[in-house]
Amino acid sequence: RVIIQICLIFFFQAEDGIRDAQESRGLGDVYKRQSSYYLGELSGIVNNKGLPIGGLYGTAIATMGMFCTGVFVLSMSGFGPIADNAGGIVEMSGQSEHVRAITDRLDAVGNVTKANTKGYSVGSASMACFLLFSAFIDEINFISPVKFTVVDITVPEVFLGGLLGSMCVFVFASWAISAVSNAAQDVIKEVKRQFKERPEILEFKAEPDYKICVEIVAKAGLREMIKPGLLAVLSPIVVGVIFKTLGNWQGKELLGAKVVASFLMFSTSTGILLALFLNNGGGAWDNAKKYIEAGAEGGRGSVAHKAAVCGDTVGDPCKDTAGPSIHILIKLLSTITLVLTPLFI
Question: Which of 93, 182, 200, 243 is most buried, with most CB under 10 Å away?
Answer without folding.
Answer: 243
